[in-house]
Amino acid sequence: MRYTSTRGGGAPLHFEDAMLAGLARDGGLFVPESWPRMNADEIAGLAGLAYEEIAFRVMRPFIGGAFADDAFRVLIERAYAGFDHRLRAPLLQVGEETWALELHHGPTLAFKDVAMQLIGQMFEAALTRRGARVTIVGATSGDTGSAAIEAFRGMEAADIFILYPHGRVSEVQRRQMTTPAEANVHAIAVEGDFDDCQAAVKAMFNDHAFRDKMRLAAVNSINWARVLAQSVYYFTAAVALGAPSRPISFAVPTGNFGDIYAGYVAKRMGLPIDRLIIATNRNDILHRTVQTGAHEKRGVAPTTSPSMDIQVSSNFERLLFDLHDREGEAVARLMRDLTGNQGGFTLSQGALDRLRAEFDSARFDEDEVAALIGRFAAETGHLFCPHSAIGLGAAIAHSGPTVGLATAHAAKFPDAVEAATGRRPALPEHMADLYEREERITVAPADTDFLKRLIVEKARA
Ligand SMILES: Cc1ncc(COP(=O)(O)O)c(C=O)c1O
Ligand SMILES: N[C@@H](CCOP(=O)(O)O)C(=O)O
């Protein structure tokens, strides 16, 4: 299996090179040259298997010769050994035909751990074998950063720099990033929003001299390995609910479009997913795109679901590639319109029809999110974080068996949950002293050159 850029440039790479490269050198994102398929018998054969075994079977066709089967199994086992639930990603019924897929059982309490714990293992194995080291640069609206730091803290072969929007992440998220004391960890509070952080990361990768000098690597979902690992839980959930004979829909709280794109990947592989529902907060560029075809940036408004306060949804580029018959030049043109003065583009009718053939969308204002958190607490007794409530709100409004992705633990966003329910969710025991741990906070302007200098100064490479 080889990976090609969504913008059509450069020679295709094998899995491990694509994983370590992160972003393609023409600024595009890596996608597989073709979709490996699982037939109905193979999907039915996943029923009852452990999460780790399903992960192996789903991901194996994508990784080619990067890891021998036995070695890959070991990495998967290690990745999920620290999860606090036997099923890793259990389902909880919240309505007659609605389930929450709980993705917060990893060490940092968000779905990011599912991929990041495995990526940490894969990076370490690949870098050790190559005798290489990397400088990881990532952007976060809160959860990717904490999960990445947890996965890479103390790793000899990697320095990790995480850019987060100053004052726009929850206190728990910030402390998860600023309290690890390991010398290879650097959390930087950028005076801007998430889109500024992500734009700075992409600019660093597109500065080839800097990229090569620092041996940059990415752990955002611009990295194909992230998306791949996230596609696994669509299989575990759908099979547990009767796939392949019963098609299941998924409603996904969406920001950078990585998680829902992972569902699209599962569908391309043959998993009978009925609808994929994009659920947004008031930062609703993707909802507007599905409804009107116009993909237009507006300012980012802070919300109680800060991890979704995003307008430039990186992975939408991967979908655009398929919507435009895998023509890199068409995607490159649209991305120029999005990042240039035009600030957006309008999909052709054909592309919009293809988008709507797979995706629905829903949008929730702040008062609706609070009402959903309160409603689910009253009806199920469970506290859901604002992001999860948005996914579940879209799921419960959809007819037919539908899974809403519960993407983070309520305790990561205690103020919003308490305001909506009167109940303050407690952090689990392993994080009980988070508020007492010492923080290291570096504040920096949203200036790529400044950030590059900071990284050069602090990196051990
Ligand atoms: C808790 C939570 N829910 C939902 C999302 C949105 O996911 P994605 O960016 O993959 O669309 C994020 C951020 O990624 C998140 O941290
Ligand atoms: N919500 C994310 C934003 C970055 O998403 P990623 O999946 O591309 O890493 C976050 O929590 O940082």
TrEMBL record:
The keyword Amino-acid biosynthesis applies. InterPro entries: Ser/Thr_deHydtase_PyrdxlP-BS, Thr_synth_N, Thr_synth_N_sf, Thr_synthase-like, Threonine_Synthase, TrpB-like_PALP, TrpB-like_PALP_sf. Its cofactor is pyridoxal 5'-phosphate. The keyword Nucleotidyltransferase does not apply. The modification N6-(pyridoxal phosphate)lysine is found at K112. Pathway: Amino-acid biosynthesis; L-threonine biosynthesis; L-threonine from L-aspartate: step 5/5. SUPFAM superfamilies: Tryptophan synthase beta subunit-like PLP-dependent enzymes (SSF53686). Pfam families: PALP, THR4_C, Thr_synth_N. CDD domains: Thr-synth_2. Keywords: Amino-acid biosynthesis, Lyase, Pyridoxal phosphate, Threonine biosynthesis. Residues 93-330 form the Tryptophan synthase beta chain-like PALP domain. One of its GO terms (molecular function) is pyridoxal phosphate binding. Its EC number is 4.2.3.1. It is an enzyme of class 4 (lyase). Residues 2-80 form the Threonine synthase N-terminal domain. GO terms for biological process: threonine biosynthetic process. It catalyses: O-phospho-L-homoserine + H2O = L-threonine + phosphate. Belongs to the threonine synthase family. NCBIfam families: thrC (TIGR00260). This is Threonine synthase.
